[in-house]
Amino acid sequence: MTTNWQPLKTELAIWRSDGLQLPLWWRDDDAIAPSSQLDRLATLASSTGVPVHLAIIPDATTQALADLLNDGPVFLPVVHGFAHKNHAPGGMKKSEFDASRPREKLRADICTGLARMRTLFGARLTPTFVPPWNRFASEHLSELTRAGYRAISTFNPRSNRFATGALEQINTHIDPIDWHGSRSLHAPEFLIDHTVALLKNRRLGKQDNSEPLGLLTHHLVHDPAIWDFAAGFIETLLTGPAHVWTAAELKWGTPE
Ligand SMILES: [Zn+2]
Fold first, then answer.
1. Under CATH, what is the fold of the domain 6-241?
2. Contact 55, 64 (CB under 8 A)
3. Which of 83, 88, 120, 130 has a CB 3.0–4.6 Å from the CB of 66, allowing a cystine?
4. Neighbours of ion ligand 1 (CB under 5 A)
5. CB 175 within 8 A of CB 216
6. Under-50 pLDDT residues of the chain
7. Taking the domains of the chain in order of start, what are their residue ranges?
8. Ligand 1 mean position to 13 CA, how many Å?
């Protein structure tokens, strides 16, 4: 099947003629250990020149992953919750940092997870927190700044630059996987139309174009169709006015 990228190319041509710039970033979730899928992700990152923010589960990860990441520059480690465990009450949407939990428990998870990630990934760790299932109880967001985080990343365009205090929202916007259906690739035309709509909203000032546009992938569950789409998506955007953003530019805050 050949993907028709033309609608996206047409939108990007307008961006070029308008002299607009598009910040682009890439997040991949649920890393724990080295794998053949992770090798494939590294190859794609190298060939496109776009580093991957690898959202790593602190409680489950391994020294072997730290050794692999320390070998090359294609991955930027970010913290993916604590144990990727659902604490939401039955029937509610899954969340590890759910409002129903005592604040001290959330704080303990955040601090223990961060300490483990620092031990394994050292100075390469960027001050970015990715809550599992892209959910975090809004009333407890200050626990992230208290720990020194400078960014939280969930899904969908941010409505405000800061979630709380100095905690910037750097979200993701395009997830190629049809989680509630085939668990393979969404229809490519749906994904391309969605991306064009996001770009149009940014171009027309309806959404914040200073927020890096985020591609969200999950390397462990990719099939060939998802890999092909991810590669084509990045390559097409890079032919437009996109420039690569990374969280390496964020500096840790002082823990309180
Ligand atoms: Zn996850």
1. TIM Barrel (3.20.20)
2. no
3. 120
4. 29-30, 132
5. yes
6. none
7. 6-241
8. 34
